């Protein structure tokens, strides 16, 4: 059956070769059967800018994605909070289309809103302030003028700080806010919503203003592969890839 695959939160990096191997298997064994593949953010552990495309590890990933695209699978990328600096050069290297977040698509007759998901975590006000800053064109333009090595060092510091902060933040603060989800669904005429970011894979059913909506949360790839397969008859989870 014709279908589309959606994944997120792979956090690919050299230090997790088992995840890279799982992703390569996914691209060779699962993804070629799909009509399209959507990667909803955090493909990489971090992305310091498209001038890092010549890194051998990055070339490996972009080459594999380009091969998938060249085989006829439509490939789409969304920014995550870890790889928000992905640009057109990276998308072209992958043979992918870089989409806005959120983006409304039609999946086999079902309006479906796709997002990374971090914008919905509005209870974490400190993070939302930071998110607004680093997604501003002025900040990104200034940051990308710095040498690549300095950018990477700064991002490493941010990662360490984020890890430490997560140890003291409540789980509820780092999850999506139900009012933010409701507002997003209302603004887009009550579609199905698919997102990642929270690492809390699940299917939620929301009853909102006389409408029933699905919210699918994609799983991360920390321990094994995770994909959502959507077709005309609905969506199903593929685990343990």
Give the CATH H-level superfamily: Metallo-dependent phosphatases
| Record field, number of beta strands | 11
Across the major sheet, the strand order is 4-3-2-1-10-11
**Arithmetic mean pLDDT:** 95
Radius of gyration: 17 Å
Strand content: 15-25%
CATH topology: Purple Acid Phosphatase, chain A, domain 2
Instruction: Using the alpha-carbon principal axes, give the shape.
Output: globular
Number of helical stretches of at least 4 residues: 7
Structural class: alpha/beta
> Under the CATH scheme, which class?
Alpha Beta
Largest sheet: 6 strands, mixed
- Unreliable residue runs: none
How far is the first residue's CA from the last residue's CA? 19 Å
CATH architecture: 4-Layer Sandwich
Order of helices and strands: EHEHEHEEEHHHHEEEEE
Question: Oligomeric form of this entry?
Answer: single chain
Share of helical residues: 25-40%
Total tally of structural domains: 1
Question: Would you give an account of this structure?
Answer:
- The chain is an alpha/beta fold.
- It has a single domain (3-239), classed as Metallo-dependent phosphatases (Purple Acid Phosphatase, chain A, domain 2), CATH 3.60.21.10.
- The protein has helices at 17-30, 56-70, 88-94, 125-134, 137-144, 148-166, 178-187; strands at 3-7, 36-40, 74-78, 97-99, 103-107, 110-115, 192-195, 202-208, 211-217, 226-231, 234-239.
- The strands form two sheets. It has a six-stranded mixed sheet, with helices on one face. A five-stranded mixed sheet has the order 5-6-7-9-8, covered by helices on one side.
- Helix 2 links the parallel strand 2 (36-40) and strand 3.
- Helix 1 packs parallel to helix 2 (56-70) and helix 2 crosses helix 3.
- The mean pLDDT is 95.
């Amino acid at each position: 059956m014709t279908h589309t695959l959606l994944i997120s939160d792979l956090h690919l990096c050299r230090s997790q070769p088992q995840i890279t191997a799982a992703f390569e298997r996914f691209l060779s064994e699962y993804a070629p059967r799909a009509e399209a593949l959507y990667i909803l953010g955090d493909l990489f552990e971090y992305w310091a800018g498209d001038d890092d495309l010549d890194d051998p590890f990055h070339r490996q990933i972009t080459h594999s994605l380009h091969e998938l695209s060249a085989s006829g699978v439509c490939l789409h990328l969304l920014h995550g909070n870890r790889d928000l600096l992905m640009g057109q050069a990276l998308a072209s290297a992958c043979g992918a289309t870089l989409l806005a977040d959120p983006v409304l698509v039609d999946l086999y007759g079902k309006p479906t809103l796709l997002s990374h998901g971090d914008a919905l975590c509005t209870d974490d006000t400190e993070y939302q302030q930071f998110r607004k800053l680093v997604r501003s064109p002025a900040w990104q333009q200034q940051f990308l003028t710095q040498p690549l090595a300095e950018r990477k060092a700064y991002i490493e510091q941010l990662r360490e700080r984020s890890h430490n902060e997560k140890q003291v933040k409540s789980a509820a603060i780092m999850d999506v806010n139900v009012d933010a989800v409701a507002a997003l669904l209302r603004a887009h005429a009550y579609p199905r919503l698919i997102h990642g970011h929270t690492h809390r894979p699940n299917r939620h059913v929301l009853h909102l203003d006389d409408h029933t909506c699905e919210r699918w949360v994609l799983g991360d790839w920390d321990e094994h592969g995770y994909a959502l397969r959507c077709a005309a008859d609905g969506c199903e989870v593929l685990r343990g890839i």
